Amino acid sequence: MTTAVPATGPGAGESCPPVRAVRQRTFVFAAATVLVLLFMVLNVRIGSVSYSGGQVLHAILHPDASDNLTFIVWKIRMPRAIAAVLGGAFLAVSGLLMQVYFRNPIVGPFILGISSGATVMVSVVMLTTVGLGFAYFSPFLNTLAACIGAYAVMAMVVAVAVRVRNGVTLLIVGLMMGYLCGAATAILTALAEKEQIKGFVLWQLGSFSGFKWAEIGVLVGFGGFLLACIYLLSKPLNAFLLGEDYAASMGVNIRRFRILILLFASSLAGLVTAMAGPVAFIGLAVPHMARLSLGTSDNRILVPGACLMGGLVTSMCDLIARNTLSPVELPLSAITAFFGAPVVIGLLLKRGTKS
Q1: Within a domain: residue 252?
Q2: Domain enclosing residue 307, as ranges
Q3: Cα(247)–Cα(241) distance, rounded to whole angstroms?
Q4: For residue 211, is it within any domain?
Q5: What pLDDT digit, counting tens, does each position of 96-141 carry?
């Protein structure tokens, strides 16, 4: 498979970036950071009931107060705002890893069936009576089920990757896993009651609502550890982007490295899907946005850049979903699709013109 985006930047064919490129990247990082913070503030302030900045600040500084505003800010809006940023960052980095692995920008984090695995397990819980036997784990039962499904599929894909070197073969295996999980979900949906189907369909559309601080802790702890590990692999990722033979000549253990890429990418995607449901297009479109705005394919720059832009885009889409037709909340994946689809179409057209 050919390399879709040539690697540039330190460690990937460019000894030292020009001053103009450094200034551009500094500006992009600064602007993205400011915008992420701005949308987090807006997500806390604005909703079906909006509050002034002073009211929100007072609620933040007095978390022990017993008024409704403090409850809404600390228990509902702040966890959701933080979850949207973290979830977007994890999906963007997961998509970046998949695009490096397949050396193709038209792939996303769910291409190997991770989302489908989570979906089929949640369908078992929500569309059957199985969940009644695990009432002890409520209200985290859906999250636990989605984790089991996502990581079960991930384990199968990694097991195949150990034996199969060809990326196209692995891609086909992932797609087949997705079809199998989709078939099981369709059968369960056909046999379920209407009331159960409604809740399941809403989960499939993805949402960061209802996040609890315990779940935020899991995102920060486990997800932060994964991001740190991925950043430490930036140089080998740059070498891998130039081809497996080149990476091997630079001392990279190709077999082990391929497994690590799949493991980290699937873990990030599975973590977000388990807690928020499938959120479309973030992992597919944001890495390409990061490459264009930062003007490089150096993963030492792209990994933090994708984190910031993923958090920014997801926060913006979540704000739009919550407030466009308030108090009715639009499906988050619908908003991200409206945002991401034009980016992907534009990339396809650009590649078609070049070829």
Answers
A1: yes
A2: 19-354
A3: 8
A4: yes
A5: 998 998 887 778 888 888 888 989 998 888 888 776 666 555 667 8
